[in-house]
Specification:
Layout: H1 6-19, H2 26-38, H3 44-77, H4 82-117
Helix pairs in contact: 1-2, 1-3, 2-3, 2-4, 3-4
Length: 118
């Protein structure tokens, strides 16, 4: 499909990860597909790169969705919880980004390994 085309493979992996988001490790599956489609022999770093990029591409719509919903919730519950959201918001953002990018990179390595083995 997109053999060696990093952006296309990352977009395909991100789309699959978002479509399968009802599964617990969906971003790993999307990253694995991206790493498999990259199909560069014996290059697990390339698989990790395209898988991590798929995680970044999948993270963007999730951040937009949660940012919109979170802003409505913050507006609704008022200023009593502003400090809590100010403190925990960046922590949750970093944890979520680590999950998406790290899970995608892990899946990319697994996908590159599968492409090598098959």
């Amino acid at each position: 499909m997109g053999e060696g085309d990093t952006i296309l493979n990352a977009v395909i992996g991100a789309a699959v990860g978002l479509i399968l988001s009802f599964l617990p490790a969906a971003i790993v599956i999307g990253g694995a597909l991206a790493g498999y489609l990259q199909d560069v022999p014996r290059e697990y770093r390339e698989g990790a790169k395209v898988g991590g990029l798929a995680g970044v591409f999948a993270l963007v719509p999730v951040l937009l969705l949660f940012g919109t919903v979170g802003s409505f919730l913050l507006f609704d519950i008022g200023p009593r919880f502003d400090g809590m959201f100010t403190f925990f918001g960046p922590i949750l953002l970093l944890l979520g980004a680590g999950y998406f990018v790290g899970g995608g990179a892990l899946g990319g390595v697994l996908g590159a390994y599968l492409a090598d083995a098959l």
